[in-house]
UniProtKB/TrEMBL annotation:
Major subcellular site: membrane
InterPro entries membership: Flag_MotA_CS, MotA-like, MotA_ExbB_proton_chnl
Name this polypeptide is given: Flagellar motor protein PomA
Membership in a protein family: Belongs to the MotA family.
Length: 266
């Protein structure tokens, strides 16, 4: 569970709710007509921009903003170094039976065991990475569009409410409801965009980039194992995927391990 997403969205909702409750009656801020116009209108407008498949996938992808099961980079590097050692000791066929943290990596190991060339492995894994990027990109695009459309629908609701108010100036009982629609639709649009759509869109873009980076790490590692790279060389090569502040520590630890006598390493 990504606590940052959960705490951020819930915290914003709590603060706005507190401001509403402490200021006046919460019922004042409830307007079914305005909600229908902003939420329903935004959904239909965004649907018009994308295909049904992209639209459905985007709402299924919302879970990725709250829960994301991508392996830790450092742990993945350690796993790949162990796989490299197994490959050098027992051959590429031994990788076929190894349980790994990702189906994407598992496919790469299967190709190694099946004797695919480095060029074929690079091409096939690269294509799958691009297709995964395209699928994940749809989620971010849909919610980014939602963040753009919702405030505009709020403004449309405001104009509708103002027109209704001006058209009924001779009937005082109609002015209040029309003014409520005019003001609340702007509020609804701003809240949906600022507190829901845009944060989820940004988090989905982040998830997409994280997954793309991890998949590239796996591709590099599989190709290095295919080329029979020394495990220590592989580790140094993959450490570039770590943040700079952690990269230096890992390099030092690796160098110390390489210079220790055999008895001390044991």
């Amino acid at each position: 569970m990504d606590l940052a997403t959960l705490i951020g969205l819930v915290g914003a909702a709590v603060l706005v709710s507190a401001a509403v409750i402490l200021g006046t009656s919460p019922e004042v801020f409830m307007n079914p007509t305005g909600l229908l116009l902003v939420v329903g209108g935004s959904l239909f407008v965004v649907l018009a921009k994308f295909s049904l498949t992209q639209f459905r996938f985007a709402f299924k992808a919302v879970a990725r903003a709250f829960k994301f099961q991508l392996p830790n980079t450092q742990e993945s590097i350690e796993e790949l170094v162990e796989l490299s050692k197994i490959s050098r000791k027992r051959g590429l066929l031994a990788l076929e039976d190894q349980e790994v943290s990702s189906p994407f990596l598992q496919k790469g190991l299967q190709m190694l065991a099946d004797g695919f060339s480095a060029e074929m492995i690079s091409e096939m894994m690269g294509k799958e990475r691009l297709l995964t990027l395209e699928r994940n990109e749809a989620g971010g695009q849909v919610f980014s569009a939602f963040g753009e459309v919702a405030p505009s629908m709020g403004m449309i609701g405001t104009l509708v409410g103002l027109v209704q108010m001006l058209a009924n100036m001779n009937e005082p009982s109609m002015i209040g409801p029309a003014m409520a629609v005019a003001l609340l639709t702007t509020l609804y649009g701003a809240m949906i965009a600022t507190m829901v759509a845009n944060p989820i869109a940004e988090k989905l873009w982040l998830r997409m980039n994280q997954e793309a980076k991890m998949q590239q790490l796996w591709i590099d590692a599989v190709l290095a194992i295919k080329g029979d790279k020394n495990p220590r060389v592989l580790e140094q090569m993959l450490n570039i995927y770590l943040p700079p502040e952690r990269r230096g520590k890992e390099d030092e630890a690796s160098a110390e391990g390489a210079t220790k006598p055999a008895g001390e390493q044991a």
